[in-house]
Specification:
It catalyses: (S)-malate + NAD(+) = oxaloacetate + NADH + H(+). Its EC number is 1.1.1.37. One of its GO terms (molecular function) is L-malate dehydrogenase (NAD+) activity. Belongs to the LDH/MDH superfamily. MDH type 1 family. By secondary structure, the protein is an alpha/beta fold. It is built from eleven helices and eleven strands. The strands form three sheets. A six-stranded parallel beta sheet has the order 3-2-1-4-5-6, with helices on both faces. Strands 9-10-11 form a three-stranded antiparallel beta sheet. It starts with a helix and ends with a helix. The chain binds 1,4-dihydronicotinamide adenine dinucleotide (NAI) and oxaloacetate ion. 1,4-dihydronicotinamide adenine dinucleotide binds next to helix 2 and helix 5.
């Protein structure tokens, strides 16, 4: 009995996989030709990268998803590729495969680099992450110069100016296509303000301007929607909590890194907004750290309208109250130094 059933299994196996013949992946009929955008994640095997890859694989606007890292990308790719959503997933490992990972991409999301440990500032990451961002952006300039770039690697206040200088050097710089991701500051602000007001955070919209580190993170609580007012104590509490949101997570993780899950959510939300803009949807507006004429600084985070060209319109800050005007001056002072540091890294 046993031998006849094992013979049957062997017969079926032989039928499915005749000797010397296996159906190879490239012989399958699926070619990944579905309409949609081609998206690459650089640093895809990291804490942010893995969850972000999962969320982008679920995005119906994505037809091809390239996952690049210097370690572990084959495993992450194999895992994600078994999800039965439209995007075709391909993995790329190490510098020799960077160009293949980037060629033909519409959107490149960059969470590559080291995260903070307790006691560190984001600027303490500069020495390692500046070089990583430079190398990856050189790849973008060479292989997909028209792609929209979402830069997550910290310190964002310096890495965005680094990317801009790399693109200028390569002759490919388009300020509309380079966006530093500050969405997590907005999702935190919406969450904390929702808690104070007793509202579903989904109903709350807080503009957060400036940059992405400490006092450069400036929530404009006077412009919260739905319109509301805060006591001086509430304003102080909310502003500090939003500015220190990253440190709150770093301390809670106690040496195991910084925000990854909420950041992947925020990055996926922002990437989706960029893709909707590229698709031609009207009225897509998010905060981002971009080339700007809103202040005297060359880069600044504020609301931007996303369209086919990228950041098509950068909005003015609107009326600020006294508390916010003082915060803005502090933010600009620190931002100016961080921007200069990033620019000098490439220029000097
Ligand atoms: N913009 C924002 O709001 C936020 C930014 N971040 C920043 O995002 C970055 C990543 O954070 P995590 O994912 O938690 O770190 P992680 O250490 O878990 O992952 C980083 C990944 O980058 C990869 N990597 C390193 N060098 C690379 C290179 N040359 N090319 C491609 N990949 C490379 C690593 O192998 C690793 O898989 C950090 O700099 C962190 O500070 C984190 C949270 C929020
Ligand atoms: O705080 C960090 O180092 C990571 C980060 O940028 C954030 O969570 O906002």
């Amino acid at each position: 009995m046993e031998s006849s059933s094992s013979q049957r299994v062997a017969r079926i196996a032989a039928h499915l996989n005749p000797p010397n013949f296996e159906l190879r992946r490239e012989e399958c009929r699926a070619k990944g030709g579905a309409p949609g955008f081609k998206v690459a994640i650089l640093g895809a095997a990291g804490g942010i990268g893995q969850s972000l890859a999962l969320l982008m694989k679920m995005n119906p606007l994505v037809s091809v998803l390239h996952l690049y890292d210097v370690v572990n990308s084959p495993g992450v790719t194999a895992d994600i590729s078994h999800m039965d959503t439209t995007a075709v997933v391909r993995g790329f490992l190490g510098q020799p495969q960077l160009e293949a990972a980037l060629t033909g991409m519409d959107l490149v999301v960059i969470p590559a680099g080291v995260p903070r440990k307790p006691g560190m500032t984001r600027d303490d990451l500069f020495n390692i992450n500046a070089g990583i961002v430079r190398t990856l952006c050189e790849g973008v300039a060479k292989c997909c110069p028209n792609a929209v770039v979402n830069l997550i690697s910290n310190p964002v206040n310096s890495t965005v100016p680094i990317a801009a200088e790399v693109f200028k050097k390569a002759g490919t710089y388009n300020p509309k296509r380079l966006l530093g991701v500050t969405t997590l500051d907005v999702t935190r602000a919406n969450t904390f303000v929702g808690e104070v007001l007793g509202l579903d955070p989904k109903m709350v919209d807080v503009p957060v301007v400036g940059g992405h580190a400490g006092v450069t993170i400036l929530p404009l609580l006077s412009q919260v929607k739905p319109p509301c007012s805060f006591t001086p104590e509430e304003t102080e509490y909310l502003t500090k909590r939003i500015q220190d949101g990253g440190t709150e997570v770093v301390q809670a993780k106690a040496g195991a890194g910084s925000a990854t899950l909420s950041m992947a959510y925020a990055a996926a939300k922002f990437a989706d907004a960029c893709l909707r803009g590229l698709k031609g949807d009207a009225g897509v507006v998010e905060c981002a750290f971009v080339a700007s004429e809103v202040t005297e600084l060359p880069f600044f985070a504020s609301k931007v309208r996303l369209g086919r060209a990228g950041a098509e319109e950068v909005y003015q800050l609107g009326p600020l109250n006294e508390y916010e005007r003082i915060g803005l001056e502090k933010a600009k002072k620190e931002l100016a130094e961080s921007i200069q540091k990033g620019t000098n890294f490439i220029k000097k």
